[in-house]
Amino acid sequence: MKRKLHLSILLALFIIGCSCARKPQPVIPPETPQETPNAPAPSDQTPAPAPTPAPTPPASRVQGDVLARIGRKEITREEFRRNYETYLLIVDPQKEKVLSRNDYFNKMITDELVRRFAENEKIDRDPIFIAQLEKEKQQILLDHILKNVLLEKIAVTEDEAAGYYRANPDEFTQPARIQVRHILLGTVEDARRALFRLEAGEDFGSVAREMSIHASRNQGGQIAPFERGTYNKDFEDVAFPLKVGERSGIVKTDLGYHIIEKTGESPATLIPFADVKEAIMNKMMREKRERAFETLYNKIRQEIPVQIINRP
Question: What is the pTM (predicted TM-score) of this model?
Answer without folding.
Answer: 0.46
